[in-house]
Design a protein that fits this description.
Helix content: over 70%
Radius of gyration: 25 Å
Shape: elongated
Distance between the termini: 59 Å
Largest sheet: none
Number of strands: 0
Strand content: under 5%
């Protein structure tokens, strides 16, 4: 995993630099700089707009008593898109823009879900069928009113 990250952190900036130099060669320095600035501005505007929509959707789902899993994934992808669009480069801008397209986000979400299902093992157990060969510690939570002090504090105050 570390080798992959190192490869990405070295390769992506080199590819970005090469593409920006190539783009500058064919379109000129001013056009390349304007392109980088405009994608940053447009990306920040789009990410902010979609981020607020997603934030409101998360609030609505929470108010309705639903867990906003898809909305949270969308919010994360929009955040990543904003970061990528503020980073100068052609490849990061293209990927960032694709993250701001809802249809592309659904595709990425399906791909990530499939990857997690293949690589992450999630096990659930019910009280009727406890796990075998595992140590299970059964516990419960007791709610106490805020005005009531724990037993240790009462015994210290009474002395």
């Amino acid at each position: 995993m570390l080798a992959r990250l190192l490869f990405l952190f070295i390769t992506v900036p080199l590819v970005e630099l090469a593409l920006l130099l190539l783009l500058g060669k064919y379109t000129g320095l001013k056009c390349t700089i304007m392109l980088v600035i405009m994608t940053g501005i447009a990306g920040a505007w789009l990410a902010r707009r979609q981020g607020w929509r997603t934030y409101r959707r998360i609030q609505q789902e929470l108010a309705a008593g639903k867990m906003p899993t898809d909305s949270l994934v969308d919010a994360t992808m929009i955040f990543v898109a904003g970061a990528l669009l503020l980073t100068p480069g052609v490849v990061t801008d293209a990927f960032g823009m694709s993250l701001l397209i809802p249809r592309c986000r659904r595709f990425y979400q399906r791909q990530m879900t499939a990857w997690f299902r293949g690589h992450v093992d999630v096990r659930t157990y019910s009280p009727d069928s406890p796990p075998r060969h595992d140590q299970v510690i059964d516990s419960y939570v007791v709610d106490r009113p805020n005005h009531e002090k724990p037993n240790d504090e009462r015994s210290l105050n009474s002395e």
